[in-house]
Amino acid sequence: MSAHAVEPIRPADFHAVDPAKAKIGQLLFYDKILSGNKNISCGTCHHHDHAGTDALSLGIGEGGKGVGPKRTTGSGPDRIAKRIPRNAPALWNLGHQSVDILFHDGRLSVSDLYGNGFNSPAEEWLPAGLETIVAAQALFPLVAQFEMAGNPKENEIAGAVHDRIDAAWPILAKRVRTLPAYGDMFVDAFETVQTPEDVTIVDIGNAIGAFIASEWQSFDSPFDDWLVGAAPLPADAERGRALFFGKAGCAACHAGPLFTDQSFHALGLPAFGPGRTRRFDPYARDVGRMGESDRLVDAYRFRTPSLRNVALTAPYGHNGAWPTLEGMIRQHLNPQAARSGWTPEKANLPPAPWLASIDFVIQEDDREMARQAAKTDIDLVALSDPEIADLVAFLHALTGKSALDRPLGRPETVPSGLPVD
Fold this sequence. Notes:
It contains 16 helices and five strands. Helices cover 31% and strands 3% of the residues. The strands form two sheets. A three-stranded antiparallel sheet has the order 1-2-3. The protein has a two-stranded antiparallel sheet with strand order 4-5. The chain has two domains: 14-53 and 89-215, Cytochrome c-like domain (Cytochrome Bc1 Complex, Chain D, domain 2), CATH 1.10.760.10; 222-396, Cytochrome Bc1 Complex, Chain D, domain 2 (Orthogonal Bundle), CATH 1.10.760.10. It has helices at 19-29, 42-45, 133-137, 145-149, 156-163, 169-177, 180-189, 201-215, 222-227, 235-245, 290-293, 325-333, 335-341, 356-359, 366-374, 385-396; strands at 101-102, 108-110, 118-119, 264-265, 302-303. With 421 residues, the chain is mostly helical.
């Protein structure tokens, strides 16, 4: 594929956003009022200081303390009960109109299957009226036990989720709309909201979706300048570009303006962590797309991530196995060799001694390791060390010049009065 097959990104390629709704979304994004125990927000794991991620291999959700690589696993009865099974995905350009599937396993997609616009873990219980897939996505961390909801018996949100996934959303909406500042803002920004009592979880999702869709747009990288003929790439990045779209074959999966085919591929990444277990398969492994599709052919396949601003969002892989771009490239070039040479020290896992017996237990299962190692969708490519360095240079050329200068940023305070991470 030629780079000229990549169309430049334009503002019109994104879903239209009302700035007033995005402003509400910014506040909600960082407001811990949306978590069961009021101690974590969306922004905790998708923080502006870390380019919309948390810089950890596996996230530290409910019960943790701090932000980014300094986040700790908590202490005493409030300490985390489990690591988040997967790496916190970046938010860049999720408002692009081409995005129609989200999460590492694709368990949320645009679909008419349930009559509400989406195929999601909430099935027919996902409320209708969510304007974009980003708005829909925003609702799920709120009701995830180890992310934001908390453990059963700790709070009313966790208890409601235990009954049914949609039972907690009305409780969260009431928390928000009864705060006068939020109520007034929703009335002013949403035509469908006449009084604060009208605010529902759909309005909250649409506000957060509007914020994510507008806040994390990025298409002003050196590559974008090159694409429209405004400026050449540095020599090493230009060599890397030629490799990316040519010999290295990267563009076969990292295709289009967002550098993702939005499909699923097995890379044979090193395995660790609690795994994304299924109710009938309580096993410390992550079967990837198969967990959503129940098709054996999808085992160990994960969604191709966008490479926009990828140099800012380490570590890499669905479980953050590789701390550097070079490491992740070598994983693609020779999965077996990379997997064999990987060591646990490469995973950025804040210490949690009570979870130590779980963190790497999957590697003791020889049969499971053999299954994972055997399933790769990668054609081996031999590249020299200088060529790998050139590919890294090209990936850096996908970093937007304004990537770290966002339109709204992190608010100093939020209407709930709770501390902002």
